[in-house]
Design a protein that fits this description.
alpha+beta; three-stranded antiparallel β-sheet
Amino acid sequence: MLWVTLFNKIGKQQMRYMQRNHVYALLNNPKTHETEKVYLALKYDASGHPFLIKEEKRHDKKKGMRPGGAKR
């Protein structure tokens, strides 16, 4: 897929959806027949060309909690 195709597809998304959801790719493993969700981050190389890389999604289960477990 060319970048212009991706840009046109993104342009058809609602702004509210794009602001609240992360970018991910669904990868199918033909050997195990499992689907893996891989989160992506946009980076630029030295010449300024964009590319997508795998991003480690951090889930903070204790968001808003103090070290002792008390809420803020």
